[in-house]
Every structure is written in C-alpha cells, then in structure tokens.
Design a protein that fits this description.
With 72 residues, the chain is of the alpha+beta class. The protein has a domain at 21-70. It contains 4 helices and 3 strands, in the order H-E-H-H-E-E-H.
C-alpha cells in the first residue's frame, strides 16, 4: 500500500512541474497570438524561454508576468 502512495505522490509532483512549462503553441494559445509574434517575443527576450534541443520551452510565470506588465 505504501508503494502505491509513493507512486501517486511522484506522479503529482511531475505533473505539477510540467504544468509550469509551456510549449510555444501553448504560449500562443494563452496570448492569442500567431507564430511569428510568439517567436519574436522569445527572440527579443520579452518573454524568457530556454531550449531543449531544437524545442523552445517557456515558463508559465514568464507569460503571466508579460500579461500583467503589458495587459493594462
């Protein structure tokens, strides 16, 4: 029984972490913007991102900060 509980806790922690990291597509959907605008924001450093191989990853907090800063 303790084994199942441990597996459940690990799965919850993994899911929570991955919810904090967005793909460019998810960022585009959140901001209702196109691909060119999304990559311009990333390229210019307006929204912080990092790369894993050829794939950009964006922290949800960076997108939220952008919204709070520019949404007024």
């Amino acid at each position: 029984m303790a084994e199942k509980k441990l597996i459940k806790i690990i799965k919850v922690k993994q899911r929570r972490f991955t919810e904090d990291i967005l793909t460019v597509k998810e960022m585009m959907d959140m901001l209702a913007i196109g691909k060119n605008t999304a990559y311009k924001l990333l390229r210019d450093g307006v929204i912080k991102s990092f790369r894993i191989g050829n794939t950009h990853k964006v922290l949800r907090k960076s997108v939220q900060d952008y919204i709070y800063k520019h949404g007024q």
